[in-house]
Amino acid sequence: MRNIPVDISGLAFIVAGEPEPKLMDRETGEVKKDGEGRDLYTIPLLPKPNDDRRNPVITVTFPSADFPKIPEGIQVRPVGLAAFFWSMNGRAGMGFRCEAIRPAAERAA
Questions:
Q1: Its pTM surpasses 0.90
Q2: Fewer Cβ atoms within 10 A, N terminus or C terminus of the chain?
Q3: Which superkingdom does the taxonomy of this entry point to (predicted)?
């Protein structure tokens, strides 16, 4: 799976819902982990400007050591946002992941 970096310099992102754990097993509630052992979460983000009226919200996967408390409606910056193509069990699509979700006002380190 190849990650393609996404240029977000001309975009703003609004949180469109609460973060949720990315489940590995729905029956047991086991949360999927990244290569460093951190839990993975998903969060719906609304990129602005966005001319795609059909599906303007993207779901982004990101790691976090603790359950993230990111309120809906605030502007954020997905650090290291990348897109990737996935295919599984006859289904395929585009996914998004990032290294972290930061408040938009927070400067890059």
A1: no
A2: C
A3: Bacteria
